[in-house]
Write a sequence for this structure.
């Protein structure tokens, strides 16, 4: 009888001990990966392998966008887009058309000047052939200063502007007639690096 009671107690303890263990979900079945030797396009992405591959498609476009722009190319392209501001005969006051040209130019210049701190804006004053060289140098200077003031009002910093007057020494048209003289009465803008290149 004592033996039966002892066996019953051992069985009871064993059942209780098993019941007290925490229960875990069954482990996921192990699946052998398929062989990709025959079809490399189905191979799983390996970060170490992908890091060594050259960028393609949109990745190439992003790389080109992120690379710094060549300043000489930017200057050349922008200078070709800048418009001259033209003046009436023997006047330095800005006309409506001259102000419109300067607004156009300021819109192009502001982001480029912010991006490239080494650039300077040259504001050149020009005149037609009539009058003395000294008089036209002064008139060209007045025109350039009026244009520079307008550009500063449009957001271009004075420290980025350099004023030059060529008077009548650098005409862009050499015919002695009003249509040609009108083209020579102008302010011309030129972007360049501070070193002068």
């Amino acid at each position: 009888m004592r033996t039966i009671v002892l066996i019953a107690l051992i069985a009871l303890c064993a059942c209780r001990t098993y019941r007290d263990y925490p229960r875990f979900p069954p482990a996921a079945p192990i699946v052998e990966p398929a062989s990709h030797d025959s079809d490399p396009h189905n191979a799983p992405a390996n970060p170490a392998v992908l890091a060594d591959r050259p960028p393609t498609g949109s990745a190439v476009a992003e790389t080109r966008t992120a690379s710094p722009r060549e300043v000489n190319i930017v200057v050349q392209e922008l200078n070709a887009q800048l418009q001259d501001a033209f003046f009436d005969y023997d006047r330095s006051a800005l006309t409506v058309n001259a102000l419109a040209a300067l607004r156009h130019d300021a819109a192009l210049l502001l982001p480029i000047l912010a991006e490239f701190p080494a650039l300077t804006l040259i504001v050149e004053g020009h005149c037609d052939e009539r009058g003395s060289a000294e008089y036209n140098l002064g008139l060209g200077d007045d025109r350039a200063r009026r244009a520079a003031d307008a550009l500063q009002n449009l957001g271009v910093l004075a420290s980025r502007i350099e004023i030059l007057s060529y008077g009548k020494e650098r005409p862009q048209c050499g015919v002695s007639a009003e249509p040609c003289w009108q083209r020579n009465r102008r302010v011309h803008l030129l972007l360049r690096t501070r070193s002068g290149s």
